[in-house]
Amino acid sequence: MARYQLGQVNADGSPAATDRGKAVRPTLCLLMCEALGGDLEAALPAAAGLELLHNFTLVHDDVMDDDETRRHRPTVWVVWGRPQAIDAGDLLHVLATLSVLRSGGNGASAPLAKDATEVVTQGCRLVTEGQHLDIAFETAANVGVADYLDMIARKSAALLAVAFELGAIFAGNDPATRAACRAYGRELGVVFQIRDDVLGIWGDPAVTGKPVGADIQKRKKTLPIIHALETSDGPDRTRLRSMFSDNRVPPDVEAATAILERAGSRDFTEHRLRQHAHQAGEALSQLPVSDWGRRNLEAVATYIATRDR
Amino acid sequence: MARYQLGQVNADGSPAATDRGKAVRPTLCLLMCEALGGDLEAALPAAAGLELLHNFTLVHDDVMDDDETRRHRPTVWVVWGRPQAIDAGDLLHVLATLSVLRSGGNGASAPLAKDATEVVTQGCRLVTEGQHLDIAFETAANVGVADYLDMIARKSAALLAVAFELGAIFAGNDPATRAACRAYGRELGVVFQIRDDVLGIWGDPAVTGKPVGADIQKRKKTLPIIHALETSDGPDRTRLRSMFSDNRVPPDVEAATAILERAGSRDFTEHRLRQHAHQAGEALSQLPVSDWGRRNLEAVATYIATRDR
Fold it and tell me: Which residue segment(s) compose the domain that B269 sits in?
């Protein structure tokens, strides 16, 4: 089941030719490590652990959210049932920790492996807290912009912060560099999620592969929606509230988008995105990375902030 | 939710006066550590981590098994729903690892903390494998005695083996002592589960607080049942098979017990229990424990093998 989730095999155990995901977190971990002149070999098991950890959260998220497909295949719980899927997620969590514990290169580097394991586990703690908030928000009466940003900083940004901090651990383990890496990853993670929220409403269906106003159709309370619910008034507020709480009528995407424009929610969201991108840039400027590394990390940040899908 | 599961608070967050469980694993970890002349303070965070890990498995098990009560209270998923319960279990898993990472005393002991984390995580891996087998056995056509013993060695015995091995880690970390502790815990864990199986069928209702033949009524395929299904023949085999597969008719406890007696399943089960208790004794005899420690560990073994509830 773990290998199925990782895209290595089909449900019957035969080798799979399928989407294995983009391995964003391990890739960025190793990029930061290399940019800081670190030891890639020592970082490799920790980077692999991040991908296992990410997949553990996906397996459990799919159970929690009743999601039936992932990367164009049935989710683990659809194939093997919820009990086995919960257990397979737990195993991936365990395998992630074991992989990170194996990092650090030779046997003399127990402190590095211990630090890496602590950072990954603390990041995972933030993810479970973010997931808790996300589930709670579904039924909460009032979720504000600050609540939402706090939630995505945990659920979406924590593992990106961990990825970059791991890179710093295996490149000298300097506390100030680690802190700057953490800040860079946290801000970029928030940018990533806010860009996702923008694309979920204003993305080009021909590029995203999703329908117009996809997140409105799914009643996802993303940043623009939360802003509009918080700041609009009169009939706009009443209309938007009922669209996002009344499950009997499908939401009117056109009307909702017009309300968002009137509330200035798109401008607000894009302004927030630029703020966090700026803070990511500030953190990056403090990092003692090579010129090659800086160019690549800047390209990553630009991509995350401006991607169209 | 984590604190509710640990029995510290009620569902509304107020302090609870409730059963917090027996803390068997941390107690035995610290007993072994002391018996070996180890550093109790250094072992304490790891011992606490074991209790957190055990509770993580309980929260997830209750979701997987649809169990609605635990220690006379509604289970976490009954109070907060399955998604939050899965997430709360994940958090307990994380907190367990963080606690174990904090073990070892002062900062110079990173290798001990790393070893402890590895042992606990490997133990947790065995538990998830045991849980996988347990779920799979529910729908498997043929489960033999060897399959069952393999399953309980993982699901029930692994964390007891970890408890004792942790004691040895913080008492000199000698590989041979660690291996003997592991063997002692594994054998005792199997004894514990087999005794559970005996009590589940032949326990005294006045002492166990459970009905006569409780496990037969619940169609639990425990060791005596699996032995009888494997070795009985003719009408006994047919009758027992139908009692454990046909959900329309409640199992006939008296008839099933008679079949078990004819198949020699009680003798077989108690013989197996004595074999594993003997192997536990062999492992204990190899341990360099104090006289005080040996007496206490022998008392633990005797209690586990002969307890009436």
Answer: 174-309
Instruction: Say if B230 falls within a structural domain.
Output: yes
Helices A291-306 + A265-285 axis angle, to 10: 170
Q: Cα separations (Å) of A75 from A4, A68, B41?
A: 9, 5, 45
Report the amino acid identity of residue A293: G
Q: How many domains does chain A have?
A: 2
Average pLDDT over residues B12-26: 91
Instruction: Please tell me what DSSP assigns to residue A232.
Output: -
pLDDT of residue A109: 85
pLDDT single digits (tens) A134-171:
999 988 888 999 999 999 999 999 999 999 999 999 99
Assigned token pair, B34: 């002391």
Check which CATH number belongs to the domain holding B96 and give it: 1.10.600.10
Q: Which two tokens stand for residue A126?
A: 């933030």
* Helix (H), strand (E) at residue A73: strand A73-74
pLDDT at A17: 87
Residues A2 and A142 both lie in one domain: yes
| Same domain, residue pair A79 and A188 | no
Same domain assignment for residues B3 and B65: yes
pLDDT digits (tens, 9 = 90+) for A10-52: 999 999 988 888 899 999 999 999 999 999 999 999 999 999 9
Element (H, E) at B73: strand B73-74
* Interface mutation vs chain A, best among B87, B115, B122, B129, most A CBs within 10 Å: B87
In whole angstroms, what is the distance from residue A163 CA to residue A167 CA?
A: 7
The whole-number average pLDDT for the span B232-261 is 93
**A94 in contact with B, Cβ within 8 Å:** yes
Per the model's pLDDT, the better-predicted residue between A245 and B257 turns out to be: B257
Domain boundary among B112, B136, B151: B151
CA distance B276 to chain A (A): 28
Residues A122 and A181 in one domain: no
> Which residues in chain A (145-204) have CB-CB distances under 8 A to chain B?
none
Residue A133 and residue A218 in one domain: no
DSSP bridge pairs for A238 = none
* pTM across the whole model: 0.95
Is residue B29 domain-shared with residue B115, that is, in the same domain? Answer: yes
